[in-house]
């Protein structure tokens, strides 16, 4: 598992964009999307729409993943 960010392309609102996340975040983000019967593009679009415009998409995805993990842990 690499600690360096890995760039992947996503499609948001019909436009391609690149997002760099560490492997662990990509793995967990994909797992959350599958768990919710969504594509990673759909889940990223939801995060993109609700995020603070001053916060980047990659940071917003990381926070989303962390919040999801913490909520799952706390039951």
From TrEMBL:
<dbReference type="GO" id="GO:0003677">
    <property type="term" value="F:DNA binding"/>
</dbReference>
<protein>
    <submittedName>
        <fullName>Predicted DNA-binding protein, contains Ribbon-helix-helix (RHH) domain</fullName>
    </submittedName>
</protein>
<keyword id="KW-0238">DNA-binding</keyword>
<dbReference type="InterPro" id="IPR027373">
    <property type="entry name" value="RHH_dom"/>
</dbReference>
<dbReference type="Pfam" id="PF13467">
    <property type="entry name" value="RHH_4"/>
</dbReference>
<dbReference type="InterPro" id="IPR038268">
    <property type="entry name" value="RHH_sf"/>
</dbReference>
<feature type="domain" description="Ribbon-helix-helix">
    <location>
        <begin position="5"/>
        <end position="68"/>
    </location>
</feature>
């Amino acid at each position: 598992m690499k600690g360096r960010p890995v760039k992947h392309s996503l499609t948001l609102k019909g436009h391609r964009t690149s997002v760099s996340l560490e492997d662990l975040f990509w793995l967990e983000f994909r797992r959350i999307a599958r768990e919710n019967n969504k594509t990673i593009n759909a889940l990223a679009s939801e995060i993109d729409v609700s995020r603070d415009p001053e916060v980047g998409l990659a940071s917003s995805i990381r926070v989303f993943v962390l919040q999801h993990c913490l909520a799952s842990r706390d039951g």
